Structures
1.
Amino acid sequence: MNFEFTVSGDEGVLKMEGAVGIEHAEELRKVLIESIERSGSLVLDIEQVDEVDLSALQLLCSAQRSCVRSKKKLTVRGAGSQVFQKAVQSAGCCCDRGCALNEGNGCFWTVGERGDEQGDHDG
């Protein structure tokens, strides 16, 4: 698993590559927290992720919820990939609408919301 975080103005991009799993959960949690703190708008680029497990999905959900609470924008690039969609479906995370916290803000678990440039999640 490789993480690369870059900032340009108010926008941060966190690029992830390789397998994102339980063995990287603590590192991913720290990187997500730092990325959210350092950005007004955050892009999670998961296009080069080739494996995702439930722990990573939980951390991405938590990051999205943190952005909503902090009134920050979150965009996920690559959520439409086969790898990500398969992980979401296998974990049972697909739903027809996002959770109550995200009402009106989109959710990358929502069926039909996932795509190549997944969901602007404005707070």
2.
Amino acid sequence: MVAIPIGYDQPGVAARIAYHGVGEFVEIGDLDASRLSQLIRKVTSNPTYRDRARWFQKILAQTHGLETAADIIERVLGEYLAEKASVTSDIYNANNIP
């Protein structure tokens, strides 16, 4: 994997990709065809990246990591939406809006 982080959480994700040895990243300001080609060759020619990715794949499958992450996101989003609905309802009630 070769990541090219642009914004939001991408720089953090790219750093984790490199830290955990499943790929490399290049900052957008350092990106050119030569650098990208170099990183692609590095990642595809070194089996360590593939081995690390397969290890993570196995761990995620054993721990149901993706399902757990999705459950947490759904729970937090549901709580947020319920809180927002409650606040909206309170505003309507406080202003006697039918």
